């Protein structure tokens, strides 16, 4: 039974999808005017982990993550660069996939763009006007928040005391300071589309409602994003979506906590925004991935280079254990199970069970990773024995792969790399026996260039992949 914290109800609830066995999930993606930073990466990664865990648990998940490819920020940046908004957006979307895939964030089932959803946006706005929930102010169209009686139910904001201008766009054409724009009239030099209210472009909030409805329908199971989006963005999505349909927009709302840099909030004003693209030049993508999963998604986490270095060592520890386990399997044999074998089998099963228990509790990756490290410890202890049972070794590997399925922390190797390494090691051994030490050293150097180091053990030569990432 999966439990999750619902930001809407402010309590932990049992996951009960609208349609049994199926999950519809929408997560607010990047505004593609720049590379994405490590705070964005945490949100994108954690929701992909949640998606993958739901699939591991047997759910049929349809996952949508959008691209906001028309926005004030894009217009300003494109003008600075002397290119069109479309050129900027398309370039940044390419870079998004490069960085996201490097962190092993899997592509969503759908990655809709706001500019490809204009017809749906216009239809929703007209529907809101027809229901008396939106009005024309000046040359723009606004949502009338006073007409939606549940406005504020997600964020829990005291709407009467909200300071005008504090995350609320000020506009003299609004009836109420909290009203938000659905359609912006065209300004000279900006991208624009035809609408019943004249040429213009959509407001930010309406884009996500339209893209979610287009690909997932009027009611979805999970809507997610960073906690900074709860107000006003997600609040406004609820108002316009539920105002139009009269139905629940999203059953569960999940929000990822902030990421700090050296205990300071990451922001432009602090000048401490860290782009994933830049971090990849200094750290392994898998170290970044492990670090971002090391805290519970709802809790804030603090970034420092020391923590990334620690994550790098942890990734190496995980991979060394797995590779040593595979080496032992390749040279192991089946034997009668002794007491230690039985004990190890039981422990492996208990750890798999523990993994599912902690991950079922609001997707607790921090505790889930702790379980993986417990298993790594058990593997290392078992491999120190003089006698290794092949059945136990394979059982440990199966447990490892099950727990690591979502965490995905193993280095990638070419399909034929294992056999190539084994052949080179065997050739080196033969060269040493023949006292051809020059050739033996050449092979060691060749392996080192492939990211492989050799270790002499009581059970023979083992190799460790230290990686080329």
From TrEMBL:
GO terms for molecular function: ATP binding; cysteine-tRNA ligase activity; zinc ion binding. Pfam families: CysS_C, DALR_2, tRNA-synt_1e. One of its GO terms (biological process) is cysteinyl-tRNA aminoacylation. It catalyses: tRNA(Cys) + L-cysteine + ATP = L-cysteinyl-tRNA(Cys) + AMP + diphosphate. Its main location: cytoplasm. ATP binds at residue 268. It is an enzyme of class 6 (ligase). Binds 1 zinc ion per subunit. Monomer. Belongs to the class-I aminoacyl-tRNA synthetase family. This is Cysteine--tRNA ligase. It comes from Anaerobranca californiensis DSM 14826.
